């Protein structure tokens, strides 16, 4: 270690001196603990159980407690603790469910003292009472906690949390009879050792397992917990209900938490996986750690401050088989690499910018922000001279740039969320409805997107080729017309060549269908192929026209060409010799005799556009054969990505829900989850709770679907005896009456139930509504004036 700083700390008559140092262990460590005088540390693991002396320059091995030719599973330790009252007393939690105590004062090589085999599964944690020498507490994977008196062979108390596995137990430092226990289901319980029958307090602390807890050494009521949800929370137990006062968000599951001595708001943490570093946080500044130790190469499994009153020495063990002593002055400080500016938009579109006061104090045009009711009052944090890193407390200046209320209005978002239809109708109706909503809010681009989605995924899929060919009469403008162009734009001479005899190959039937409102050509191949009816270069010649021009409609002069066609002999500059063909009239007369042409079409000998709908359209069958059903999926995916990048996750999520499986496979799961969480967060900020819940229900992401199925508790009291109901049904265990009885019809309510929060009586929604039309008193006869919102 090159960056070593020597530190000396005076503790009463003793002095702690040392530097950053480490030693290699024989095996990975699971836990460490330090003795009362801070001179020795014990390291325990599956294959290691040793005591090291902490010298000024190095660790020196003093004692190996794994003795015997074949050490038993009693030496395989999940946790170890060194008694703070008796320097010769150790306790370990074995992976086979045994709690073992060790007496270092024994003259023999084997220091094992007592075995407690009452747990049925792995013991996760052991803890000595801070002031009582003979009291030991254990927590096991079997869900039980046991209190042992070391003067007796068996446990004196058993505590059942009636929950899942116990992950940590800790005696309160200030309260003699209290201990805390954490569980895998996110629950924290507080117990009184004198009452093993029931816990004193229980609350949900985390979403997922709570792996660790630690009582504050100075503040009696503060309890820190860490869990798999990557959070460290500080709870105030002095109140009637546990109150969360601080929350620190880390980047990985929290395995250990330890309050820093002599620093009220500092806490050290290490992670269970992924992250190998040790962090020291100021809980008042939860977004960036105050200090960080980066020496370990694998997961840190145990951390402990060397002395109860020394904040500068930290010991740690790891799965990389090393034991470290960290000096606080050698820690890296992430604040040095952090961006000193902050930028954020408010819900109203206002922009807040924070930076070091020294960077913007020279701006003479800057006016002080006095705040208004849309923003909280901001303040500068005063310097604390007692803190080691004073610059962490440096003050910042905040600038707020307010936008015009009208321009920054989010009413369109709220109206769109309330009016959008996402399910319960056919796809075409959903797209049309949402397009109408967007159009009404003058969001024309979004409205056009919904219209295109309807055409792509609904219209083409519901219109067959036969229907398209036989329903193009008057009033059929709702059908989609593909690749259409006006006959006016056809070069002279092209009309007579619409049907030519094949020069080679098999003949192919082509129909020219002409009626008063439309003209169709059914052609299964538009490309130049051998045996095609019309050679490509003859049809196009030297006409320099854009493809879009061919597909334009002319609505301005519908009757301009009602006169009879007179086609010239040569329509294009000659490239090769061409053979004369029959005139248009003869050709059409032959066509009239064809069995493929109806009587109405035979009477029409001139190409006369009527009502400006004279179109030549390629049939739907050609389109469908050319383009598979998922042809537009990449384009739709890019459209959704565009909207999301523009910040309009509302449109992205709404289209995702409406299209469902048609587009879901085109977008990766992580991106979809990000969109959903962003949209749900916005809905909840605007207090659109019902719409948020609907989006969660309609989501196809597993992580989103479970959002409204967790941390929801419904407490129900019986309307007769007013006692709490059990979770086993709607029959009260005490009075044996059904709680969901309608006060009007006196039948069991099996559907929607409504009740008065004042008297607890209620019934069918329709019955209660009808009753309140004539009376405001409770229908149950209790005399209460019921009010329903």
UniProtKB/TrEMBL annotation:
Q: Where in the cell is it found?
A: Lysosome membrane
The record ties this protein, via Gene3D superfamilies, to: YVTN repeat-like/Quinoprotein amine dehydrogenase (2.130.10.10)
Question: What is the first-listed, main subcellular location in coarse terms?
Answer: membrane
* Organism domain of life: Eukaryota
GO molecular function terms noted in the UniProt entry:
ubiquitin protein ligase activity; zinc ion binding
Q: What is its EC number?
A: 2.3.2.27
Cellular-component GO terms for this entry? cytosol; GATOR2 complex; lysosomal membrane
Kindly state which keywords UniProt assigns to this record, in alphabetical order. Answer: Autophagy, Lysosome, Membrane, Metal-binding, Repeat, Transferase, Ubl conjugation pathway, WD repeat, Zinc, Zinc-finger
Q: Which GO terms describe its biological process?
A: autophagy; cellular response to amino acid starvation; positive regulation of macroautophagy; positive regulation of TORC1 signaling
Q: In which pathway does it act?
A: Protein modification; protein ubiquitination
For this protein, what reaction is catalysed? Answer: S-ubiquitinyl-[E2 ubiquitin-conjugating enzyme]-L-cysteine + [acceptor protein]-L-lysine = [E2 ubiquitin-conjugating enzyme]-L-cysteine + N(6)-ubiquitinyl-[acceptor protein]-L-lysine
* Record-linked SUPFAM superfamilies: WD40 repeat-like
Residue spans making up a coiled coil are: none
Q: Which InterPro entries match?
A: WD40/YVTN_repeat-like_dom_sf (IPR015943), WD40_repeat_CS (IPR019775), WD40_repeat_dom_sf (IPR036322), WD40_rpt (IPR001680), WDR24 (IPR037590)
In the record, the note on similarity to other proteins reads: Belongs to the WD repeat WDR24 family.
**The protein's role, per its UniProt record:** Catalytic component of the GATOR2 complex, a multiprotein complex that acts as an activator of the amino acid-sensing branch of the mTORC1 signaling pathway. The GATOR2 complex indirectly activates mTORC1 through the inhibition of the GATOR1 subcomplex. GATOR2 probably acts as an E3 ubiquitin-protein ligase toward GATOR1. In the presence of abundant amino acids, the GATOR2 complex mediates ubiquitination of the NPRL2 core component of the GATOR1 complex, leading to GATOR1 inactivation. In the absence of amino acids, GATOR2 is inhibited, activating the GATOR1 complex.
Designated name of the protein: GATOR2 complex protein WDR24
Organism from which the protein derives = Geospiza parvula (Small tree-finch)
């Amino acid at each position: 270690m090159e960056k070593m700083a020597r530190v000396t700390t005076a503790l009463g008559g003793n002095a702690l001196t040392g530097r950053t140092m480490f030693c290699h262990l024989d095996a990975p460590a699971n836990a460490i603990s330090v003795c009362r005088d801070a001179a020795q540390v014990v390291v325990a693991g599956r294959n290691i159980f040793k005591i090291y002396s902490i010298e000024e320059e190095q660790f020196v091995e003093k004692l190996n407690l794994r003795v015997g030719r074949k050490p038993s599973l009693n030496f395989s330790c999940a946790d170890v603790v060194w008694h703070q009252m008796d320097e010769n007393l150790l306790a370990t939690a074995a992976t086979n469910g045994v709690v073992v105590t060790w007496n270092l004062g024994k003259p023999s090589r084997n220091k094992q003292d007592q075995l407690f085999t009452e747990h049925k599964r792995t013991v996760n944690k052991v803890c000595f009472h801070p002031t009582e020498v003979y009291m030991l507490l254990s927590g096991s994977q079997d869900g039980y906690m046991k209190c042992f008196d070391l003067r007796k062979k068996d446990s004196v108390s058993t505590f059942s949390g009636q929950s899942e596995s116990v992950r940590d137990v800790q005696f309160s430092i200030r309260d003699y009879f209290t201990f805390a226990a954490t569980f895998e289901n996110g629950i924290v319980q507080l117990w009184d050792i004198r009452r093993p029958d029931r816990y004193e307090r229980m609350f949900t602390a985390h979403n997922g397992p709570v792996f660790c807890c630690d009582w504050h050494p100075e503040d009696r009521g503060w309890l820190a917990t860490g869990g798999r949800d990557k959070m460290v929370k500080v709870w105030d137990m002095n109140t009637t209900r546990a109150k969360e006062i601080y929350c620190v968000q880390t980047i990985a599951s929290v395995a250990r938490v330890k309050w820093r001595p002599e620093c009220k708001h500092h806490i050290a943490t290490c992670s269970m996986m992924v992250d190998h570093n040790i962090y020291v946080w100021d809980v008042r500044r939860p977004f960036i750690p105050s200090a960080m130790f980066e020496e370990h190469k694998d997961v840190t499994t145990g951390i402990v401050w060397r002395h109860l009153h020394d904040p500068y020495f930290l010991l740690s063990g790891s799965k990389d088989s090393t034991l470290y002593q960290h000096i606080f002055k050698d820690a890296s400080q992430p604040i040095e690499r952090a961006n000193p500016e902050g930028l954020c938009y408010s819900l109203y579109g206002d922009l807040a910018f924070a930076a070091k006061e020294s960077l913007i104090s020279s701006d003479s045009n800057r006016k002080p922000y006095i705040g208004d009711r849309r923003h909280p009052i901001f303040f500068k944090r005063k310097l604390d001279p007692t803190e080691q890193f004073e610059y962490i407390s440096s003050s910042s200046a905040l600038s707020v740039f307010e936008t015009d209320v009208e321009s920054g209005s989010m009413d369109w978002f709220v109206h769109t969320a309330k009016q959008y239809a996402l399910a319960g109708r056919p796809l075409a109706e959903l797209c049309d409805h949402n397009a109408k909503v967007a159009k009404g809010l003058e969001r024309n681009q979004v409205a056009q997107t919904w219209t295109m989605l309807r055409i792509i995924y609904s219209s083409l899929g519901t219109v067959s080729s036969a229907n398209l060919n036989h329903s193009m009469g008057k009033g059929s403008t709702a059908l989609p017309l593909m690749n259409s162009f006006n006959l006016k734009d056809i070069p002279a001479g092209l009309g007579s060549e619409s049907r030519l005899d094949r020069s080679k190959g098999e003949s192919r039937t082509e129909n020219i269908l002409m009626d008063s409102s439309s003209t169709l050509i059914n052609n299964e191949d538009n490309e130049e192929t051998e045996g095609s009816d019309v050679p490509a270069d003859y049809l196009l010649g030297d006409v320099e026209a854009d493809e879009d021009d061919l597909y334009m409609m002319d609505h301005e002069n519908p009757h301009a060409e009602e006169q009879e066609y007179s086609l010239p002999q040569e329509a294009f500059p000659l490239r090769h010799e061409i053979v004369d063909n029959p005139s248009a009239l003869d050709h059409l007369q032959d066509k009239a005799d064809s069995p493929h042409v109806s009587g109405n079409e035979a009477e029409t000998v001139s190409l006369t556009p009527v009502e400006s709908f004279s179109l030549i359209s390629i049939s739907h069958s050609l389109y469908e054969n050319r383009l598979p059903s998922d042809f537009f999926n990449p384009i739709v995916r890019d459209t959704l990505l565009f909207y999301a990048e523009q910040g309009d996750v509302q449109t992205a999520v709404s289209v995702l829900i409406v299209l469902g499986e048609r587009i879901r496979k085109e977008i990766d799961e992580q991106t979809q989850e990000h969109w959903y969480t962003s949209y749900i967060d916005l809905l909840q900020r605007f207090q659109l709770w019902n719409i948020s819940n609907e989006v969660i229900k309609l989501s196809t992401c597993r992580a989103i679907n479970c959002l409204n199925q967790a941390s929801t508790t419904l407490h129900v009291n019986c309307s007769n005896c007013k006692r709490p109901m059990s979770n086993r049904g709607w029959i009260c265990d005490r009075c044996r009456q059904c709680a969901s009885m309608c006060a009007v019809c006196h039948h069991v309510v099996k559907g929607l139930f409504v009740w008065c929060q004042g008297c607890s009586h209620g019934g069918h929604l329709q019955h209660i509504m009808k009753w309140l039309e004539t009376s405001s008193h409770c229908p149950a006869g209790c005399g209460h004036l019921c009010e329903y919102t």
